[in-house]
Amino acid sequence: MDFKSSDTVPGPRVEDHLPQTTRAAVKIVIVGGFGVGKTTMVGSVSEIKPLTTEETMTQAGIGVDDNFGSDSKTATTVAMDFGRIGITEQLVLYLFGTPGQERFWFLWNGLFEGALGAVVLIDTRRLEVSFDVMGRLEERGVPFVVAVNSFPDAPRYPAPELRAALDLAEWVPIIECDVRRRASSRDVLMTLMHFLHTLATRRAPV
Amino acid sequence: MTPPQRRRRTPLEPSTPEPAPAAPGAGTEGEPAVPNPERLYSLTGTAAGAERASIDLVTLVVAAEDPPPTLTPEQVSLLRLCTAPLSVAEISAYLSLPFSVVTILLTELMAADLVQARAPIVRQIVPDRSLLEAVMHGLQKL
Question: Is B76 within the bounds of a domain?
């Protein structure tokens, strides 16, 4: 791990500085399989050039029995892309695109625990890679919507068929999108926010 | 063509205890979960075992004052980044340091009152509707 000298450390451009009045951040997690478009989605809506945070994982963190002795321990670097959207002078939203495998989620403290909600991004050519992640989110009580990234050659299933295949409750939104387009990615986030708002309204004491 | 069918797992998980959510480098026991412990130790000073549970990816960090001359280059770099509020994730990205290392550096700087941390707003069982509405309003402006 080489450390760059302090003179050459890059930082945010001045125009990317958050207002000093920014009091707090919220986050949304975009989760999906490799190549499904997480990074593209983060990039299409982020107001800053997407950045990457990394974490190092050893075999012990992968969840296999560590019977091999320390000699055979290998470290894997896991990267996560993220972007940012200024909401108000006091509030900022961060978007994290994270791999679907749960073993990565522990690397970043509280990645899902504090998130407002999640977007499960799916590719209908490889629907099954998203099955596990939806189960994990349900177990953790993380509210999510399903966004179908519409690849041109991907099979198109009627919504009821897709919902049945994903075994999704009828209140969980499914939305088609083209994550290369900012408006489309924003619509996915809006769908999530409306869903969260509906949940809040339903659960709120009268 | 019929899509593959998801099969829900049984509600009760069998006895596969989930690993503790503590990230690598956080513990004081066992082996450090980093490839090069000596280097990490020198980078993060003496507080490697300090608690870091309160630091989130989107905790916003603001440098409190000009760095005193006794700081390490890494600490100076971090403070220079945070003249305006900056998330821990962004600090990690700009410094090319793992999240766990950044949290340890920050723990030291927070203990010395050299940075101020602004905690994120996290999901509540009953979410704050005005917060959600503010986010929706912000997204509409995109």
Answer: yes
